[in-house]
Amino acid sequence: MRTDRYSIVSLLRETVRGHTGWKPAWRDAAPAARYDVIIVGGGGHGLATAFYLASRYGIRNVAVVEKGWIGGGNVGRNTTIVRSNYLLPGNVPFYEQSMKLWEGLEQDINYNAMVSQRGVLNLFHSDAQRNAYVRRGNAMRLHGVDAELLDAGTVRRKLPFLNFDDARFPILGGLLQPRGGTVRHDAVAWGYARAADRLGVDIIQNCEVTGFLTEGGRVTGVETTRGPIGAGKVGLACAGNSSRVASMAGLRLPIESHVLQAFVSEGLKPFIDCVVTFGAGHFYISQSDKGGLVFGGDIDGYNSYAQRGNMPVIEDVCEGGMALMPRIGRVRLLRHWGGLMDMSMDGSPIIDRTPRDGLYLNAGWCYGGFKATPASGLCFAHLLARDEPHAVATAYRLDRFARGAVIDEKGMGAQPNLH
Ligand SMILES: Cc1cc2nc3c(=O)[nH]c(=O)nc-3n(C[C@H](O)[C@H](O)[C@H](O)COP(=O)(O)OP(=O)(O)OC[C@H]3O[C@@H](n4cnc5c(N)ncnc54)[C@H](O)[C@@H]3O)c2cc1C
After folding, report:
1. Which residue range is the domain that position 302 belongs to?
2. Residue 238, helix vs strand vs coil
3. Looking at ligand 1, which atom is closest to the CA of residue 83?
4. What DSSP string runs through 298-317?
5. Ligand 1 surroundings by CB, under 6 angstroms
6. Contact at 8 Å (CB) between 308 and 278?
7. Does residue 3 sit within a domain?
8. Rhodanese domain: from which residue to which, for each copy (predicted)?
């Protein structure tokens, strides 16, 4: 087990040595014949699960098997927003648990993930929308989550460049979660990978799972492009590829895969000091520490496994941006990309055992899964270690769609393309 810690002492030591002593953040592990637990998918959720299995549940004979490279999936493609401003009882405690874990994450994993609690502000543009946000804010406060209702004057003093007096979408105020904010997305993958590796977890990149080993109906391991690997338990954390991987075990999931795009502008001087969401369209924006405007909107609206989007959504996102802050029209776009969303039928996730013995599922994160990364890892580790759901994830059952116990936070019904 490795013991090198990042600290001011190690930084000074390496400065004196000309930075010749840094070790790779994690080992390039080759697959062993067998593990107690194999996690399929080296995204944020898979790596966090491995870290909590090792650190909180003492299960260290663990492998994370990733078909590409760590951070190449959605964990490194999202718009970095974290928050716990949920409404429904099935969701609020889970996302608040995640927020608390974000607050201690850098100490837990000894890694600078640039956790920035700069606040998330949801704007409202009508009396009906204000009522909905008052209700949401009250639900949050009843659960001990921070929420503040801001009037138009306060929002105007905070963000004077927004389009307040637009005839169609006047800004009447906003619901602020001060503890929400942003976290550097790929640092989350690297930090969890390094911390898990230090506890003995094998992180195996360029190793695609192509099937499952079974004995008498029980899943006993995985077939991979680097050979078969045995396991006591197998956990799936494959995000946008969940349905594809689960189908190899004969499971049909209540999930559709859709593309979501993200956009980054050229670097500008700091002028947006929080995350802002436009309530009259689907548009959200923040400013990165490098100065780029990071923004996004809707999913592309058709099923796909391609990690790239199309022009109509680019146009739609830019229209949202122009309606909210017309000055964005003068800014040049630097780059944009797409990721794969595992859209569940009610917009809420699944952390559960599957009908196949030995096979466990973590999926259905839609486009809100980055903020869930720490709690998802903790709850999935708990399930894998104890065979029972964690107290804050009891609602995330796989059979809830058959039972009618859906957690429809947005009230959209079984419409994955609307969640
Ligand atoms: C553009 C965009 C913006 C977003 N913005 C936000 C946001 O602001 N806030 C928020 O909370 N969420 C956001 N999300 C959603 C969030 O990024 C995802 O819900 C979350 O990252 C999914 O979990 P993950 O990190 O484990 O996924 P991933 O990083 O995708 O991990 C899954 C891994 O499984 C691997 N895999 C798949 N199949 C196999 C196989 N057969 N064998 C081995 N490995 C396999 C993949 O290669 C991948 O690395 C956004 C997503 C996108 C694309």
Report:
1. 120-181+256-344
2. coil
3. 11
4. EEEEEE---S---HHHHHHH
5. 40-46, 65-68, 72-75, 77-81, 208-209, 237-241, 245, 260-262, 296, 339, 365, 367-371
6. no
7. no
8. 37-81
Spatial CA neighbour of 226 closest among 67, 71, 36:
67
Residue 128 is assigned to a structural domain of this protein: yes
With beta carbons less than 8 A apart as the criterion, state whether 294 and 288 touch. Answer: yes
Specify the pTM. Answer: 0.97
Ligand 1: centre distance to CA 74 (Å): 3
User: What is the distance in A from the centroid of ligand 1 to the CA of 345?
Assistant: 18
Q: Which residue out of 40, 49, 64, 78 has the highest number of ligand 1 atoms within 8 Å of its CB and is therefore the one to mutate?
A: 78
Q: Is residue 32 domain-shared with residue 102, that is, in the same domain?
A: yes
68, 89, 272, 355 from 409: Cα distances, Å: 33, 10, 28, 26
Are 264 and 335 in contact, with CB atoms under 8 Å apart? yes
Per-residue pLDDT tens digits for 179-191: 999 999 999 999 9
Query: Residue 324's domain is classified under what CATH number?
Result: 3.30.9.10
- The pLDDT, as a whole number, for residue 300 is 93
Element of type H or E holding 136: helix 127-142
- Using the mean position of ligand 1's atoms as its centre, give its distance from the Cα of residue 80 in Å: 12
Which ligand 1 atom lies nearest to the CA of residue 71? 29
Task: Compute the distance between CA of residue 261 and CA of residue 108 in angstroms, rounded to an integer.
Answer: 31
Cβ 396 vs Cβ 382: under 8 Å: no
* Amino acid in position 122: N
CA of 128 to the centre of ligand 1 (A): 34
The mean per-residue pLDDT over the stretch 256-272 comes to 97
